[in-house]
Amino acid sequence: MNVGAICSREVITAHSADGLAVAARMMREKHVGCLVVVDTNAANGDLTVRGLLTDRDIVVTVIAKEADARALRVGDVMSRAPLLVRDSQPLAAAIRHMRDVGVRRAPVVGGRDELVGLLSLDDVLEALATQLTDVAAAIRTEQRVELSTRG
Predict the structure, then answer these.
(1) Confidence class for position 151, pLDDT limits 50, 70, 90
(2) pTM summary value
(3) Hey, what CATH class is 3-150 in?
């Protein structure tokens, strides 16, 4: 299974010049823990990833330091150069890379390095849970077939 098969394709984005307070409100309204910070490629409209803004970034960089969120921009707080994964990358390799870097979310890019999704560990857990449910169902079916043919 590759990353593109399970990543979330609905990605909430922001620009580095956006106000931080506005971005925090957007995170609350959209019920997300991060925004992918992008630039728009004027030539083709593709979104290019520039950073990642997480709720943790806001807490650690702004709240804990008692900074004025209204005076800051997304670019002042975002994590620059986030881990990017390719939509064609095998899921197992992406998970290992996320583990090695220590992140829970990674923007997913396509063949032109354009933003196509967001992979979170929640997505991975959901996919694994579905697969485990299918395995358990196959075992139960096999047991029923065995009982009916030998019964």
Answers:
(1) low
(2) 0.83
(3) alpha beta
